[in-house]
Amino acid sequence: xxxxxxxxxxxxxxxxxxxxxxxxxxxxxxxxxxxxxxxxxxxxxxxxxxxxxxxxxxxxxxxxxxxxxxxxxxxxxxxxxxxxxxxxxxxxxxxxxxxxxxxxxxxxxxxxxxxxxxxxxxxxxxxxxxxxxxxxxxxxxxxxxxxxxxxxxxxxxxxxxxxxxxxxxxxxxxxxxxxxxxxxxxxxxxxxxxxxxxxxxxxxxxxxxxxxxxxxxxxxxxxxxxxxxxxxxxxxxxxxxxxxxxxxxxxxxxxxxxxxxxxxxxxxxxxxxxxxxxxxxxxxxxxxxxxxxxxxxxxxxxxxxxxxxxxxxxxxxxxxxxxxxxxxxxxxxxxxxxxxxxxxxxxxxxxxxxxxxxxxxxxxxxxxxxxxxxxxxxxxxxxxxxxxxxxxxxxxxxxxxxxxxxxxxxxxxxxxxxxxxxxxxxxxxxxxxxxxxxxxxxxxxxxxxxxxxxxxxxxxxxxxxxxxxxxxxxxxxxxxxxxxxxxxxxxxxxxxxxxxxxxxxxxxxxxxxxxxxxxxxxxxxxxxxxxxxxxxxxxxxxxxxxxxxxxxxxxxxxxxxxxxxxxxxxxxxxxxxxxxxxxxxxxxxxxxxxxxxxxxxxxxxxxxxxxxxxxxxxxxxxxxxxxxxxxxxxxxxxxxxxxxxxxxxx
Length: 650
Ligand SMILES: Nc1nc2c(c(=O)[nH]1)N[C@H]1C(S)=C(S)[C@@H](COP(=O)(O)OP(=O)(O)OC[C@H]3O[C@@H](n4cnc5c(N)ncnc54)[C@H](O)[C@@H]3O)O[C@H]1N2
Ligand code: MOO
Known about the structure:
Blueprint lengths: L12 H14 L8 E5 L12 E2 L9 E2 L3 E4 L1 H4 L8 E6 L9 E5 L11 E4 L3 E4 L2 E4 L9 E2 L10 E3 L7 H9 L4 E5 L3 E6 L4 E2 L10 E2 L2 H11 L3 E4 L7 H14 L2 E5 L10 H8 L1 E5 L3 E2 L5 E5 L2 E6 L3 H11 L1 H7 L9 E6 L3 E2 L5 E11 L2 E6 L7 H6 L2 E5 L5 E2 L4 E6 L8 E5 L3 H14 L3 E5 L1 H10 L5 E4 L11 H7 L3 E17 L20 E4 L4 H12 L13 E2 L2 H9 L5 E5 H6 L3 E14 L6 H11 L1 H8 L4 E2 L6 E7 L4
Parallel strand pairs: 5-6, 13-16, 13-17, 14-15, 17-21, 19-24, 22-25, 29-30, 33-34, 33-35
Antiparallel strand pairs: 1-12, 2-11, 3-10, 4-6, 4-7, 5-9, 8-9, 18-20, 20-21, 22-28, 23-27, 24-25, 24-26, 26-28, 31-36, 32-35, 32-36, 32-37, 32-38
Helix pairs in contact: 4-7, 5-6, 10-16
Bound molecules: ligand LQZAQKY5 and molybdate ion.
Ligand LQZAQKY5 binds next to helix 4 and helix 7.
């Protein structure tokens, strides 16, 4: 069977990284990277291959550093306010005579036989003479040859990243070209018979190749020159040929997918034939099936197919190799301490990398874990950072201290919206970015989850829509009950329509709540604690309908859009949700009720951001933008419904 190491031997990450480093170093991969000569003007960001020496001095002549007169210092000696010295103005080109001077501008060549410049402000001109009242010291206000850079002096050391100022220095030193380390050529080969290159060729079972573009972009960010190979189907010979050919023309080859145990996962076998497989399987999640190989002295990396796995393993096993090949120091990620917003389970025996949103709420920096699925591209774009849960840990409790590695500096000031999600929250995010340069990330945990997140100071904003069946009042009874402490405000966002979503044409002729208990109807529900679920239960009891009579009552999803998507997919006939979700997926909508969707703003009293949010909600621009989504009434948006100013511990 496999000629390489057994599948998924799974060494720990640190050991694997060391093995990878050691093998590449021993193979001489980092020793002498190829060099190329580029015009200095195009060398920004490139890495000098060798020390660079000046061809000429800067300045290359003695020149005036000021506007003024050029003099011979000894002619000015003894000049004082009571005993001024008169110098004779000479014309440009006229030979120097003792007691003479020339008018010079900043940067002018110093006239022969002069050795000092007096600033124009200190000179009194009268006819043909220049009167001065202070002596000049030799070489004052003169930029002498080589003052800045001396010919043959080192301008830039080797392995230095060229900055804009370096370009000026190199050009000034007479260099038009500079030797830089060639960008490592990295061929990225997407593999998989199911892959298609264009969205219009998608059909069920086909997958759009997005990874090769993501990986090429990552390679470019890390200083490499990416070469994207065409999609190669799951065919042993074709993949082998593609890798072999790419090895001849590149410094590194990345294959994507085909790493796991599936019958068509050939990569490991191919790489074992072409060279040595150093590892197949690392004790990390995601990214476990990664393959690290050395073929013809070059690294070949088999990245797993799932996008999150591919990106993470590229960061772990491609990025640093590219940096080292270019003689660049490996950047240390910026880390911030935070507390975990929610409990996090982890597998013992693998190091788990979890993407998180990060925000500082009432003085506490919180890391909220995002969806962990290896196929969730959205978790990659929502995350501000990542935490690692060690191999020996079964998980971490809510509130545990964690270190977050930030993806970008200055990204830890995100606003976290945790609760029942609404499309209006996304619109609010757009306005907040425009008006306060704040990034809003939203986690969907239902209304009750939002209230709890505010209570634990794990959310800045929580969207809620909870109906109190006794009072018939929305939201206020719940915040008063659960949020006795803390400093927050409850603010109206919208009244919105709730209804039943059905396929276009309403094939099952659903007209209202009583239809839900029909035998031929299947339902998709929202999770317990969500406002929609509360409304459903309220309406069911109002109509005297039993929940256990509904087929699919126990089938829960956690967003309005997921309800809509379930219906589109044919997995349920109907489900309750907001009109905007139905509209977004072209479903028909049968209104059954109105509800109040409000947001809790969890900020210290008089916080500027809370005020900005309220102003946004009240603005006609925001209201129009949300009402356009359909099913919203924002007449009361921004109205403060309840305020609490009880500091914790009071
Ligand atoms: N029996 C086992 N099955 C799997 C295991 C395992 O240990 N035992 N490991 C799982 C893990 S973990 C991962 S990660 C994946 C790795 O899969 P492969 O590298 O073999 O890749 P594929 O199976 O071909 O594809 C997986 C998945 O990735 C997406 N994909 C692939 N290529 C692209 C692309 N170019 N652009 C976008 N998306 C891509 C696609 O959704 C595939 O469905 O294996 C598990 N299975
Ligand atoms: O590592 Mo896979 O990458 O866990 O899904």
